[in-house]
């Protein structure tokens, strides 16, 4: 009896385990019930496709209107199911989403304590653990590139929360086309192929021993023979990638970006490196960190002088706490937002900058570089790092559709950081090429037409 009972308990535990891991199956899309006139034609096309898919991703560039598209998608799900939808955003982007919803007449409210505040409830990723998935019919992940870390805690938490929900939408501007990890984790969150299933189907494992992320980044994880086209065909079954409306057959009209002016400033440190007779490019991360700290004063002085002289709104991006503190002292009236600040202070400061009450904002790209709209600002200073995503997201806060002025970005580095700047420029060029390839491949797949070329009438054989 005891053996039978233990066997029954083990089966129950195993079934519970499978239940926790199983995604809700089948496509759950439907014909849109709500499609407002304030959406542009290309936005209506993308939103209609997303509603009809039920579970999908929209990779649309900054300023193409992901917020109104995801709000309309969420409203359709609310009207279809009569249950609320949860919208997950990066910290401080929630208030901006609420403003957009009010502008378009859509009911949405922010919640930080796990309560369902409105039919469309908005919260940030850090508060997700307070919510019960059973109270919702769908989830929107704004800036879903947060899922790219395949072994990250947020990715696991979001994927588990969404697993049983029939309606799921991922929105981001920077799905890295050369980082297949992000595409795999996005697919897994949507209930399509899991990350490991994607690897086994489309990729060939490297013979060298290293982490999967290192293998992808170094190019040692390669497509299986003749599988690349099938891979992009699979991607376009659950995602759309758009840099501008013409990518999906609509006129660009007002969706033309103004000029981006990047000006490089190479400063010379007043303190000589004791290890060299004159400044040499830093080799390795340790030397680069040392060089960055050695030149803090000179770089901050250059940034402050460029911002003070203009008298216009500006963002000073930094990476070290010492840089932020020093810039705040050098620039009169500037306010720094750092990681230790409360959520309320961060939101209030970002709101003040967006509304023009604050002229100069100082922060790090990892804090303020995602999802915020600052088209009123056309000047930034930036200390380069090896992260292309941080660079791209930082400049895109201002250089985005809706910006009417040329945007100037002053890149400030030292002579010893020449290697960092060169690596950033290389990544920027590579990413532009790769995303162009992503759009081309996906949209070529979309243009495949199924036609009936059989024109002869079927006749029955005599032997039948």
Query: Reading side by side through the largest sheet, how are the strands ordered?
Result: 3-4-2-5-6-1-9
Instruction: Characterize the largest beta sheet: strand count, sense, and whether it forms a barrel.
Output: 7 strands, parallel
* Rg estimate, integer Å: 25 Å
Please state the second-level CATH architecture of the largest domain.
3-Layer(aba) Sandwich
List low-pLDDT spans: 448-454
CATH homologous superfamily title of the largest domain: Tandem AAA-ATPase domain
Principal-axis shape equals: globular
Distance between the termini: 62 Å
Count the DSSP helices: 16
CATH topology of the largest domain: Rossmann fold
Helical residues, percent: 40-55%
Question: What is the number of beta strands?
Answer: 15
The CATH class of the largest domain: Alpha Beta
SSE-based structural type: alpha/beta
The total tally of domains equals: 2
How much beta, percentage-wise?
Answer: 5-15%
* Mean pLDDT metric: 81
Write a structural description.
- The protein has about 475 residues and is α/β, with parallel strands linked by helices.
- It has 2 domains: about 20-250, Rossmann fold, CATH 3.40.50.10810; about 260-420, P-loop containing nucleotide triphosphate hydrolases (Rossmann fold, 3-Layer(aba) Sandwich), CATH 3.40.50.
- Helices cover about 40% and strands about 15% of the residues.
- It has helices spanning about 1-20, 40-55, 65-80, 95-105, 155-160, 180-190, 195-200, 210-215, 230-235, 285-295, 295-310, 320-330, 345-355, 365-370, 390-395, 420-445; strands spanning about 55-60, 85-90, 110, 120-125, 140, 165-170, 205, 220-225, 240, 260-265, 315, 335, 360-365, 380, 405-415.
- The strands form 3 sheets. It has a 7-stranded parallel sheet with strand order 3-4-2-5-6-1-9, with helices on both faces. A 6-stranded parallel sheet has the order 10-15-14-11-13-12, with helices on both faces. A two-stranded antiparallel ribbon has the order 7-8.
- Helix 2 crosses helix 3 (about 65-80) and helix 9 crosses helix 16 (about 420-445).
- The protein is globular and about 95 Å long.
